[in-house]
Design brief:
- The chain has one domain.
- Helix content is 72%, strand content 2%.
- A two-stranded antiparallel ribbon has the order 1-2.
- Helix 2 runs antiparallel to helix 5 and helix 4 runs antiparallel to helix 5.
- The radius of gyration is 21 Å and the shape is elongated.
């Protein structure tokens, strides 16, 4: 998003809201880049598991569970990053042909009517499940497995929290763009297209 001269001339309150959204966007961006490195770790760990198992006849449940934990972390911690970069799964039959203002409206309505309620339900229904896991200091049910399953289950709470941060960024940026305070990179030079 690019600031327009209108944002520079806007109230301190409006500029402050944009600064918060920009900070949250940067935080999610950094987290996404960090999480992307887990994919490499997961691939290398999988290779180690295969080599140990088939060449040295040595199996490790902890290593195999580590791959599962990493996969869960990539998905749960990377979802907000993917959504922020508009790389999430979307049925894009009509959306791409919409005018920019219609896309903004679809984004806002989708966030308010789908993203926030669904993630609120996920958080609400997961909270007791995760709390019980922490209370028991739940560990793997397999002998030789990892001793901190409660950390894995905690991702069920982190996913909605990160998606809420993304929702704040999307709502603020969409609102500011709607009212002409921001301009999407693809809109630079096409001011009349809105």
């Amino acid at each position: 998003m690019f600031e327009t001269p209108q944002l520079a001339a806007a109230s301190a309150w409006l500029r402050g809201i944009f600064a918060v959204a920009r900070t949250l966007r940067a935080l999610l961006e950094r987290l996404g880049v960090l999480v992307s490195w887990l994919v490499l770790a997961m691939a290398l760990l999988t290779a180690v598991v295969v080599v140990l198992r088939y060449f040295f006849q040595f199996g490790s449940i902890a290593l195999q569970e580590s791959v599962t934990y990493l996969h869960a972390a990539v998905f749960m911690l990377g979802a907000a990053y993917a959504a922020q970069r508009d790389q999430h799964v979307r049925v894009d039959i009509f959306y791409r042909h919409f005018a920019r203002r219609t896309q903004l409206l679809v984004n806002v309505l989708g966030t308010l009517l789908l993203l926030l309620p669904v993630t609120a339900l996920l958080f609400f229904y997961s909270f007791d499940y995760v709390a019980a896991s922490w209370a028991l200091a739940e560990r793997s049910s397999d002998s030789g497995g990892l001793a901190f399953r409660y950390l894995l289950k905690s991702l069920l709470l982190l996913l909605p929290l990160l998606m809420w941060l993304h929702a704040v960024v999307l709502l603020v940026e969409s609102g500011l763009e709607w009212f002409g305070y921001l301009q999407a990179p693809e809109q630079i030079g096409t001011e009349g297209a809105l």
